[in-house]
Design goal:
The protein is an alpha+beta fold. Helices cover about 35% and strands about 20% of the residues. The protein has 12 helices and 13 strands. It has an 8-stranded antiparallel β-sheet with strand order 10-6-7-8-12-4-1-13, with no helix packed on it. A 3-stranded antiparallel β-sheet has the order 5-11-9, with no helix packed on it. The chain is globular and about 70 Å long.
C-alpha cells in the first residue's frame, strides 16, 4: 500500500529502535534548506533591530572611525568639513556629564586599590609625587584625579614665568598674526578663541588692540594634560585678572593627534578665558575642556559652572579683580585637558623648551638669567 521509501522515512518516528536508520534523501534536503533559511532569518534579526544599533553598529563604527583617525594622522590627511560635522554630532556633553557623575560616585574601600591601581598602570601615573600614596584614601575617581602634590614634589624656578602644569607642549613660540598654530601646520583664530575685546579701549585691529606696547608681540604656549598627569594647574607668573569669559562650546577630544586633524579645535570647545595684565602687558590664561572633562574648577571663581545643560553657543562674561602670585593654585580638571597661555612680551622672548617636549609644573618658560638681564 505504501512505497518502501515512504515507510523507510517514517521508521524513526514509528519506533525509537530505528533512529539510526538514515531518513530518505529528499527529506534530508528539505530539512537542511529549512534550517538554512531559519539561520539566515536569525542573522538578519540580530543585526537589523533597534537593539543592534547600540550593541553592534555603534561599537563597530566607533572602532573603525578611531582606526581611520589614526591612519589619517600618520599620513597628514586633511579632514573635510563633513567629517568634522559628523564627529561633532556625537553627544560628548551628555557622556561627559555621565562620566562626571560616575567619577564622583564613592567607591567601596575594598575595591579602591584595584580600581585606582588599574588606572595607575594604564596611564603610567607617578604616585610618588602624590601627597597621599595610599590608594584606599581616595573616596572616588574624581578625588584621585585631582590629588594634590606632596611637599617638594615640584621645584618652582626663579624665572618670572613658569609652566602652569604638567603635560606635553603641543606648541610654543611667537604668535605674530591673527591665525595661531595649535600644532604645526594647523591654526585657530585668535579673535574666535578670546572673543570680543571688551577689556581695552582701542580702535585698531584685533591683534594690535591686545598689545599695551606696540613694540611687543604675542607669544603662546599650549600644554596638553594627559589622563595620567597631575590634574591641577597653577598661576604661571605674577599677574592680575580683570575679565573672565566662559564659552559653553563642545567637548571634543584635544589629544595631540586630534589637534592635528581638526583646525580651530580650541575655538570649538568649552573654555574659561581669564584676561589681565602682567609685567609686559596683556596676559591671558585659558582652561580648555575636552571629552569627559566637562568639569573645570577655578578656585578663585566659584560662580563658574561648566558643562551645564543649554545651548552650546552660550557666552558668559564677568568682570573680576583678582591678583595671582607665581606658583599659586589656580584650578583643576577632572581628567586630562589643555592649558593655553597667550601673553604679550618682547619679540626676543625665548621659550626654554620645544613642541613635543614634556614639562612639569614650576619649570621655567624662560631662564632666570634672562629675567635678571631685562
Amino acid at each position: 500500500m505504501f512505497p518502501p521509501t515512504r515507510i523507510r522515512s517514517c521508521l524513526p518516528v514509528m519506533n525509537p529502535m530505528f533512529r539510526r536508520v538514515k531518513p530518505h534523501k529528499p527529506f534530508r534536503q528539505v530539512h537542511n534548506q529549512t534550517k538554512s533559511v531559519t539561520n539566515n532569518q536569525l542573522q538578519k534579526t540580530k543585526w537589523m533591530n533597534l537593539r543592534a544599533i547600540f550593541t553592534r553598529w555603534v561599537p563597530l563604527g566607533s572602532v573603525i572611525y578611531v582606526g581611520w583617525c589614526y591612519i589619517r594622522s600618520s599620513v597628514n590627511y586633511e579632514v573635510s568639513r563633513v567629517e568634522i560635522k559628523f564627529y561633532e554630532m556625537f553627544p560628548f556633553r551628555i557622556t561627559s556629564r555621565l562620566w562626571g557623575r560616575l567619577a564622583a560616585w564613592e567607591l567601596p574601600t575594598s575595591i579602591r586599590s584595584f580600581v585606582y591601581g588599574t588606572y595607575v598602570k594604564m596611564f603610567n601615573v607617578n604616585l610618588n609625587d602624590a601627597a597621599v600614596t595610599d590608594l584606599s584614601y581616595y573616596k572616588s575617581l574624581s578625588a584621585f584625579f585631582t590629588r594634590s602634590l606632596r611637599e617638594g614634589a615640584r621645584y618652582v624656578s626663579p624665572a618670572y614665568c613658569i609652566s602652569p602644569c604638567d603635560g606635553v607642549v603641543l606648541n610654543c613660540g611667537p604668535a605674530d598674526t591673527d591665525k595661531i598654530e595649535q600644532v604645526k601646520g594647523v591654526t585657530y583664530s585668535l579673535e574666535e578663541f578670546l572673543g570680543e575685546n571688551k577689556w581695552s579701549r582701542s580702535n585698531s585691529n584685533y591683534y594690535e588692540s591686545l598689545l599695551k606696547n606696540k613694540e611687543n608681540i604675542l607669544h603662546q604656549c599650549i600644554i596638553y594634560l594627559a589622563p595620567g598627569d597631575y590634574h591641577r594647574f597653577h598661576s604661571p607668573c605674577d599677574w592680575s585678572s580683570s575679565f573672565r569669559r566662559h564659552f559653553s562650546g563642545k567637548l571634543l577630544s584635544v589629544n595631540p593627534w586630534m589637534a592635528k586633524l581638526i583646525p580651530g579645535l580650541f575655538t570649538m570647545n568649552e573654555r574659561a578665558v581669564y584676561v589681565g595684565e602682567w609685567k609686559h602687558g596683556f596676559f591671558s590664561m585659558t582652561a580648555v575642556g575636552a571629552t569627559n572633562v566637562g568639569s573645570i574648577e577655578i578656585y578663585s571663581d566659584p560662580e563658574l559652572r561648566t558643562n551645564t545643560k543649554g545651548k552650546r553657543n552660550r557666552i558668559e562674561e564677568l568682570e573680576i579683580h583678582t591678583d595671582y602670585k607665581k606658583g599659586e593654585l589656580f584650578g583643576q580638571f577632572n581628567m586630562g585637558s589643555t592649558i593655553i597661555l597667550l601673553f604679550e612680551a618682547p619679540a626676543d622672548f625665548k621659550f626654554e623648551f620645544k613642541s613635543g617636549e614634556r614639562v612639569l609644573m614650576g619649570q621655567a618658560l624662560t631662564t632666570a638669567a634672562k629675567e635678571q638681564s631685562r
